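Structure record:
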Amino acid sequence: MCAVDGFAMDGSMPLVTAGAATIAALVAATAAHRARGCTAVPAAWWAVAACAALAADALAHGLGAVPTPAAAARIRLGVAALAVCPAMSLLGAKRPQHGVWQLIVATLAVVVALPALSAWLVRPGSLPDVHVLRRGFLLGLTLAGWLNFAATSHAAAATAIAAGQLVILRPFLPGVATDLALPQPGLDAAGAGLVAAGAVAALVGRLPVGPQLPASKTLARSAAGPAADSAAKITARIDPPFLALRDTLGAAWALRIAERFDAVAAARGWPCRLRFAGLDAGGDPADESWHRDALRALRALLRRFVDDAWLARHGWNGPPS
């Protein structure tokens, strides 16, 4: 048990929280490396910063280095400000503005953490006064981050991470008293554990999503022989990079890419549409006249988010330009 000026807490559970947060930070750093060449990399580094801040917060509590509940609340608000940065970063993950967008993300973090700075400088010893709008923004951005991946192959991982975030941010959510910022070691450990579990699941596992090809359609394609192979060929070239980008950036940008691709397809009369689950190639299966142009159009859209090395790592096999 650690005690400083009457502020006492069990020292073991904070160390569990710090360990889980450290694991999550290491996983996020690994994800940043795996996503190299993609505009999602800054979001991964924001996640590293948030998890590292949570680990430092928990470690400080475990060692008895946080003297008062007011100090604990200020530190936790700083952690909360960083926790919503990854979701915010992904909202601006399109070239060429994705770099400058990180300044907006950093400004967001400062604005969210302002009550902690104000309490520290103006009202020493008092809890930060977090306005209901800030509380709503923290909740909304956490849910937006979850919704962005709820329909992808990372749905379970996103759910675990969002649930863990809400547990960690609980003192600053709408309708919750800020004095609950007084650390509750068991809850903090559970929240950090959920975040770590979700991060590991997102890194190592991927479940198929989206509608599967009906058995009747599969049989029809098999009976069609070489003609059906043409449609399968273009699908096999488009789906891997598109679905990989969908699972990296989330549904918002994937749907935007599909919308732009479909607009070009409609204008040029291509018998295909890009769905959330991949390419739906219609028309005459033997007609390959539109394939090359479709691949060029998709590449132009994907290059707003990734470079050629990323495309090559994720199965791109289309025209180079």
